[in-house]
Amino acid sequence: xxxxxxxxxxxxxxxxxxxxxxxxxxxxxxxxxxxxxxxxxxxxxxxxxxxxxxxxxxxxxxxxxxxxxxxxxxxxxxxxxxxxxxxxxxxxxxxxxxxxxxxxxxxxxxxxxxxxxxxxxxxxxxxxxxxxxxxxxxxxxxxxxxxxxxxxxxxxxxxxxxxxxxxxxxxxxxxxxxxxxxxxxxxxxxxxxxxxxxxxxxxxxxxxxxxxxxxxxxxxxxxxxxxxxxxxxxxxxxxxxxxxxxxxxxxxxxxxxxxxxxxxxxxxxxxxxxxxxxxxxxxxxxxxxxxxxxxxxxxxxxxxxxxxxxxxxxxxxxxxxxxxxxxxx
Length: 329
Prior knowledge:
- The protein is α/β, with parallel strands linked by helices.
- Helix content is 38%, strand content 15%.
């Protein structure tokens, strides 16, 4: 018997898409509820052959205690909550889905940008609460969108999709990513610039970096002070990439025009958070990746990835490819 443990789903959760692969006579599929600490995760998966997780903390101690564990399957793209080096050291594959929700997140970033640009949420709230005249009085300043500049911090798949959409709106698109080859920029018709140049030129700055030790807090007061006072910050990547205290200070001081945020340092966002009182901030609840069909497809892929490893195979995507050499795959 194989034991597959879900460290994020509540006991009794239906999970019909995952069960298409995992409801088998040789698999015990166990749902233990959300494990919020490394200790809880370690206890949950200590005798598991495979683990499924949403964003629970898989620290080194988890892999040290899980002698049978062959794979951790992470829903979605990000693996910042998993110690990949520890997984590799203990011969555990980490499967994720880097091709998941590319269009959804790009669309969401575009919607946040357009909402900020045209003040849709602000005007809607004002016309409902204060009337037509007050809403009309809030129109200016407002840019035209076409002819304005979108700056992309990182130029991976989501940013490239967003670039195509922005160019269809007749925007100028520039990007900073020292890890992307010049020919990729040229093929996309996007200008490669330094970070300083991007901040100085952009009317909208959209963040698309993964959360790492190097990117944590990278959008700080110095970065925000280098943006145009009329510019907006858009974040659909990870909340801790932005130093929220310094963003709040910049917004209050009028050093940037506003922000469109889907991700936050603390989630769920507390009801008394300063962002919730700011008219020039558009908020969504970490929902950029969501579409019904997209999530259903991903859930099926999660189950298939776990089954593939249990049957001796390699999943479609391995976030720690060095483990394959260690395993002789």
